[in-house]
Amino acid sequence: MRCAAARDCRATSERALRSFLRRVAARIRERTTGERGHTLTPAQFAQAQKDDNRRYLDIASVFDGSSLKGKRVAITGGSRGLGLEIAKAAMDVGAEVLVICRSGTVDGAKIYDGVDVTDAEACASAAKKIVEDGGPVDVLINNAGYFYGPCEKVTDNSLNFEEELKQIDICAVGPLRVSNALYQAGGLVQGSKIAIVTSQAGSCEWRFTQNKDEGGDYGHHMSRAACNIGGVLLAEELKSKGVCVVLLHPGFNRTEMTKKYESIWDIEGAVPPAEGALRVLHEVIRASLDKTGAFVNCEDGLRIPW
Ligand SMILES: NC(=O)c1ccc[n+]([C@@H]2O[C@H](COP(=O)([O-])OP(=O)(O)OC[C@H]3O[C@@H](n4cnc5c(N)ncnc54)[C@H](OP(=O)(O)O)[C@@H]3O)[C@@H](O)[C@H]2O)c1
Predict the structure, then answer these.
(1) pTM
(2) Ligand 1 centroid from CA 301, angstroms
(3) How far lies 114's CA from each of 63, 124, 271, in Å?
(4) Coil, strand or helix: which one is 39?
(5) Which whole-number Å values give the CA distances from 139 to 86, 173, 179, 209, 284, in the listed order?
(6) Could you please report the per-residue DSSP string of 149-181?
(7) Average pLDDT over residues 10-25
(8) Quick one: pLDDT at residue 38?
(9) Best probe residue, ligand 1, of 84, 102, 297 (max atoms within 8 Å of C-beta)
(10) Is 235 in the pocket of ligand 1 (CB under 6 A)?
(11) What is the 8-class DSSP label of residue 196?
(12) Residue 49 binned pLDDT confidence (cut-offs 50, 70, 90)
């Protein structure tokens, strides 16, 4: 049993390493052939180091969270991983933090537990309580997400349709369910912001380089593309209500979700989630109605191609 687990683990690391090498090769090809203009994560990270880009390499040195002081910030999946660090960072700058989660406690935050983002009733009842407890929120951060472990492939018959639908339910419909529930409860009003922590995995354009010659990870990447479409539609619908929406790729964070990519954490500049949290909040603060619907990489603040 242990042997099989070790073999699985080795296979995952080898796959991650092979994938990294392929992407570097693709990048070199791009540079020499002029194909596609977008930088890859390792290239971006290397460039940021070369330029000593503080925004990218040391977010704490540029982060100013003072505008969040006294603001009501609700966050899904806020009791673990990146979400927990976002909750803590928001509290550090004086925000009132409302954690919407399945279970858990967070010192200093108000907890709304028993909320699976696939459960519309649970979302509605938490939203109602949030508004009863203190009125509308200033910021809703849809952070809860899920990435199925094994890489899915057609060629080795490893597609898992159930898992594909589960990821779409959590990562794409989940943010819409929560945002809808809070809007219906009167919790999102003129001036409120909705942030959706999505992933660059949902960028079709990037699949030509990041999944070059490989494909794979169908459910997760499809879920994020669907999430992004949902975010853009939500942005267009809520614009006239004065509610802005921003889609945020949080960068590469060292959490349970990315443990399977541990072998490339250093090479690709994966950061501790406390750092990723500041990057996310930095972009939440910068989000505004005139840029509603933007899909932003929190590592460098630049737009991600669709
Ligand atoms: N880490 C990265 O490098 C990275 C990169 C791109 C995007 N992201 C996105 O960033 C977000 C946070 O990721 P992470 O790295 O912190 O992942 P994580 O460590 O796996 O944490 C996932 C969080 O989502 C919650 N969650 C999962 N399924 C849920 C459901 N059905 N209902 C309610 N909550 C649910 C979990 O709550 P429980 O404790 O109840 O399981 C947990 O709080 C995710 O949306 C992820 O897709 C992360």
Answers:
(1) 0.89
(2) 21
(3) 33, 12, 30
(4) coil
(5) 12, 19, 11, 34, 8
(6) SSPP-TTTT---HHHHHHHIIIIIIHHHHHHHH
(7) 58
(8) 42
(9) 102
(10) no
(11) E
(12) confident
